[in-house]
Design goal:
With 323 residues, the protein is α/β, with parallel strands linked by helices. It contains eleven helices and nine strands. The chain has helices at 14-25, 61-68, 91-112, 147-163, 185-195, 214-226, 245-255, 267-276, 280-287, 295-301, 309-322, and strands at 5-9, 29-34, 51-54, 73-76, 117-121, 169-174, 177-179, 211-213, 233-236. Helix 1 (14-25) packs across helix 6 and helix 3 (91-112) runs parallel beside helix 4 (147-163).
Length: 323
């Protein structure tokens, strides 16, 4: 199966921009769906190689029907992201409106339009926040800890219900933290600390975490478009190497041409500081392990991350230093 015309939602986001470029480079006919007021300058010279479609909402069926009419596949990236500082009065309702109902509507119209494969980018947060003693597996029962993870799981389930019994194949991918040029959030904050030589109290941590560069994630998503082993399956994705928080700081420092300033601090003190500063979740992610099993992705797809972690860190650092 060779799927030529691909619709990408959330195309102007961090992952979407990298994915669209990869798809164009591999010869796909790409329709990039973006919000009505999205800045198209983020695509640079890529704009002329794609069809850009502005959509106000994933709830508008008529608009989406026109976009999906000639589509062979959909890669659904758009959604309400996990927020560090939530302000909504009812966060679960907000997540469900965008992540669940938006996915449900898009999948329903995709079936009606004859789309052959629907790839949904979910999150490892469906599995949980941390691993203890064993890695997360793609077919684990959900153990989400927040509204975002719950909404992603519910969206997965709605996609399966809609696609089952139709000719549209579904694929779900759950990535961990994604990094690369234009990254935001905690990863960018950590890079800033390393660049400014701020002492980081992570020297006593002995955790292990899976990450994935946006390059490796995009490579897998492109493979999933045409691979027969991907149909109606869930997959985890990560770089080929897991890393501790102290080692990540050290290797990030090398990429940034800085010396890492790591100090030892008991983990209990870090958690106490997180409680006092109301940053419990951030400290938990800093200290805990979160490891993904890569065996199913390798066995079903014959895929392993083509880019090393250090290569991904170097590309991210190059972008950061240009800023």
């Amino acid at each position: 199966m060779s799927l030529k015309h691909v619709v990408v939602t959330g195309a102007n986001g961090f992952i979407g921009r990298h994915l669209c470029r990869k798809l164009v480079e591999t010869g796909k006919d790409v329709t990039a769906c973006i919000r009505e007021r999205a800045d198209v300058s983020v695509f640079g010279d890529l704009s002329s190689s794609m069809r850009l479609c502005r959509i106000p909402s994933l709830d508008l069926g008529e608009n989406l029907s026109g976009i999906l009419r000639k589509a062979d596949a959909v890669i659904h990236l758009a959604g309400r992201a996990h927020l560090m500082h939530e302000t909504a009065e009812n966060p679960l309702s907000e997540f469900r409106q965008v992540n669940v109902r938006g996915t449900e509507n898009l999948a329903s119209i995709a079936v009606q339009s004859g789309v052959k494969r629907f790839i949904y980018l979910s999150s490892i947060k469906v599995n949980g926040e941390a691993t203890e003693g064993r890695a997360f597996f793609a077919d684990d029962q959900p153990d989400y800890c927040d509204h975002y993870g719950q909404s992603k799981w519910e969206a997965e389930e709605r996609l399966l219900q809609i696609a089952t019994g139709t000719e549209m194949e579904w694929v779900v991918v759950r990535p961990p933290l994604v990094y690369g040029p234009e990254v935001r959030g905690n990863f960018l904050a950590l890079m800033k600390c390393v660049f400014r030589r701020i002492p980081l109290p992570v020297g006593s941590l002995h955790n292990s975490r899976s990450l994935v560069s946006v390059y490796n994630l995009s490579d897998l998503l492109c493979l999933l478009l045409d691979h027969p082993g991907a149909a109606n399956n869930r997959f985890l994705v990560s770089d080929s190497e897991d890393i501790s928080t102290p080692d990540l700081v050290r290797r990030m420092a090398v990429a940034l041409h800085r010396s890492a300033r790591i100090v030892r601090c008991p983990e209990a003190v870090l958690h106490l500081a997180g409680t006092l500063l109301r940053q419990n979740a951030a400290v938990q992610r800093l200290c805990s392990s979160l490891v993904l099993d890569r065996e199913k992705t390798s066995n079903y797809l014959g895929w392993s991350a083509p880019m090393t972690l250090d290569w991904g860190l170097d590309r991210t650092a190059e972008w950061f230093l240009r800023r």
